[in-house]
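Running this now, will post back.
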Amino acid sequence: MSVWVDLQGQGPVVEQLRRAAQSSGPTHAWLITGPPGSGRSNAAVAFAAALVCEREQLAERGCGVCKACHTTLAGTNADVTFIATEKTTITIEEARELVRKAHDSPSSSRWRVMIVGDADRMAERTTNVLLKAIEEPPPRTIWVLCAPSPADVLVTIRSRCRTLTLRVPPVEDVAALLVRRDGIEPELALHAARAAQSHIGIARRLASDAGARERRDAIVHLPLTLRDVTAAVRAAGSLLELAQAEASSSNEERDIAEKAKLLLSLGAPETGTLPPSMRAQVRALEEDQKRRSKRSVTDQLDRALTDLLSFYRDVLVLQLAAHGGTGVEHPSSAPGPGSTAELVNEPLRSALSDFASRGRPEATLARMDAINSVRRRLTTTNVSPLLALEAMAVSLL
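Update: finished.
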């Protein structure tokens, strides 16, 4: 099984990365960009696996079955370093550690690969720490940076990288991947892929977790409950609670898995009290998990707002279809259940059509702007989430 199998709908980019991995002297620095869900990190890890693959035949590199490919995909290859912060930004100390590792010779592979999964989460001062290492890396080191767009990375960095841009894969491709890889029923896979707006990781969670689907359904129904200020404030509180519940559910699974993995690696006894040295390492892990939880809630809030945004996106699609795409209403046209416009929230078509018939595209765009404004504030400032959500909900009336 090839390491490229999960990169749905990314043929041109995969082909460039494949050719680079099969060459004797690939470009020393890469910048992989694309919107959330496009698979930036997956592409970076697949490229790293192909670079360190044990196959001697160039055409077979990235085989997906050798030890180097397996350990890279599992995140345990000694010659591949991946950093993606659980905090708001990558710290300057973490950047310096990356630079130090970049100067180590590969232990068993042809290349040492340094992957920065959140290159957009570095302050200018931190980015400058990496600049020299990226500009003049050691002979056997390759850097791979990931960011939503080239504009999210300092020009001094991106000018020294070869840039590849991914696109969001089609809904059908994501659904096919869920069916093939995860054994999801085709109808559920298609529903999850559409609801996730082609974000593969979120689609997989929606397809495999009924609770996640229920929480998302509650979010996209919120605009239908907005009748007055009291209802708006109540909806804001519900939105925050749903995001916190989703973060808690997601973190609980990962926290348990991380702790079990740590105890296994330490050789901890199955029963009884842990030795002091082991307890210290378990406490350190638990503290890291607590620090991670804050960003997790912020990320889930952003996702919840993206789901909320999909409601108004569907409303706008229906309104523009009714207005002939010009914003000028046709005399006999009105958005209705019979419209053929493709919707993210297809099960809500009837309610969406009714909602769309009672407003105009200009008002819908203003509501979408209000949601996007809150998304920016939550990720870039220390604003109280509840207050920000309440103000947004009132503006949606």
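The radius of gyration is 23 Å. More later if anyone needs it.
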